[in-house]
Amino acid sequence: MSTFAAAVGRGKNGWTASELDLTGLADIDEVVDALRDVEPDADLALLFVESDDQYLAILRLDEGEDLRVFGSDSAFAEESRIGSVLLGEIEAPALEIDELTASSDADDGEEEDDRPSTDPDADPVGDAELLGDLGIAANRLLGLCGKEGMLPSDVTAELCQKIGCGDEMEELREA
């Protein structure tokens, strides 16, 4: 599996971005340590892991301590060692598909194109609200992940633009 892992940290001087190599990391604690090392004084650190143009995992670390995890599809944990490390301990679905569909039908001010086209095969897991305080509601995150034609890199780019670290992420990809 081809994997791209990028960490962004928000410190006193704004956002910094670094690519992480997850291949030698044995468990989630080692991943968290690597994320902490990106920007040790960061009040917020995010790790975006894209795999095979199919899966996206997002880890959020607040104040270097509080870990929250989201995965676009539980199959990532079954098909990949890295997916298993990142998502293996998550048991709860992100939102039930019925909840997602019901909230998509509600008038929440989203554009029609932003509403999720629920993929019956996708099984998002973890904390879909992990970016809520940064302006990305759970339904928006799930909608992007389930949108036909959206690759994990497209989702990451859009999320990073919205939260203010899009330029840093773009520079990292171009390096």
Features:
six-stranded antiparallel sheet; about 180 residues; alpha+beta
Account of the 3D structure:
The chain is of the alpha+beta class and 175 residues long. 35% of the residues lie in helices and 22% in strands. It has seven helices and six strands, in the order E-E-H-E-E-E-H-H-H-E-H-H-H. The protein has a six-stranded antiparallel β-sheet, with helices on both faces. Helix 6 (152-163) packs across helix 7. The chain is globular, with a radius of gyration of 15 Å. Residues 104-118 have low confidence and may be disordered.
Q: Mind summarizing the main beta sheet? A: 6 strands, antiparallel
Query: How do the SSEs run, as a string of H and E?
Result: EEHEEEHHHEHHH
Rg calculated over all Cα atoms: 15 Å
The mean pLDDT is 87
Q: Helicity, in percent?
A: 25-40%
How large is the share of residues in beta strands? Answer: 15-25%
Q: For the largest beta sheet, what order do the strands appear in spatially? A: 2-1-3-4-5-6
Unreliable stretches (pLDDT < 50, length at least 5) are: 104-118
Number of helices: 7
Q: How many β strands by DSSP? A: 6
Distance between the termini: 21 Å
User: Structural class of the secondary elements?
Assistant: alpha+beta
Coarse shape:
globular
